[in-house]
Amino acid sequence: MSRGPQLGEAGLCAVPDDVLSATVLARLECPRDVARLSSASKRFNALAGCENLWRSLYCERWGEPGELTRRAAAIAGGYRRLYGSKDVTEKAAAPWTKPCPEELRASVEKLATRLVGDVQQVNVVFLVDGSGSVNAEEFEAMLGFCVDASNQLAESVPNLQVAVVQFSNDVRVEVGLAPLDSEALRKTTREMVRMNGGTNVAVALTKAGQLLKRDAAPDAMRHVVLLTDGRVDSYQAHEARQVADQLADEQRHVSLFAYGVGRGVDRAELLHIIGGPPTCAHVPVSHPHYHLHHNLHAGGQPPQPPQPPAQAPPQQVVPVVPVQVVVPVPVPAAVPQATQAAGGGDAAAAATTAAALTAGFSVCLSAFGEAPEERYLALCTRDDAPW
């Protein structure tokens, strides 16, 4: 019984790569099939490493990659390696959800970014949730992140200051804002005792603002890192958001980050607190408002509002019936009554506020104009209700 003509090795070599990809790789539905195919020959091994293929497989499992994921893929050396790293992490962490090492590194890299050169001081205040809805394991995960993130930052930031503040109903400054001492930080976090109680994010953000205003250099980067489950009522969330807005209004180069830790993390509430809709519109990097914000913080001058064009005097006076025209003007959701100077004489912050009034947009709680989704990461989460 004849099986028909067979495609030999020579014939296989004559088939173009794009044809092989379309007829073979496109029909593979899972990474295991791709891995098996890659062991068949050197050519299939090369084709199975195609970035577009692994990016497609990544999207099918975890969704469309954002900026942080794209950076994590670059750190990993491609989507194939990132897929493998996330798969291993996911299986090892189950039933918890945790980021893979490359995602963590990409997230912490954001804290090292500076606006006015490599000599600019970077200040990071970690706000650790010690409330009753966080158990001992989750508390340890937050403290471990503080230590690991600080050590990673120290590799690329020569002028780094770090603080650790624990909060529940009240706050407790565990490590004051000062140059990083890795051993002292590790020792302190090992000895920290969880406070228990409620979750008052507003009082934690207030304390972070006080530390930054008192101990940070005038032109320093100011990063506030909130580690919590975000489970607060609507009034507390509104209050926290008001304090966050005030912090961004009063001090330059401020960015708020959130890391979800615990059971039943309220991601939407955390995004709202650190700068999500509806009260704080995202200003993308490509948007002219971002460049205005960036240039002002870098010491530039705000652009002058456009002057109305000169009009020639009328040739004759014609009586007309007055008509009232109502033009909708965007009004910032939170406009400061007075801009306080951070570190003494913050003229650029005042200029930013004036420009915001002129442009009609609200303050973005990110020095780089990043969307809140790019400043959030699920550090150690589960979907079930708190214990």
TrEMBL record:
The region called Disordered is annotated at: 291-315
Question: Pro residues bias located where?
Answer: 302-312
Q: Which Pfam families match?
A: VWA
Q: Which domain of life is it from?
A: Eukaryota
Per UniProt, residues of the VWFA domain are 123-283
The molecule here is called VWFA domain-containing protein
- Record organism: Chlamydomonas reinhardtii (Chlamydomonas smithii)
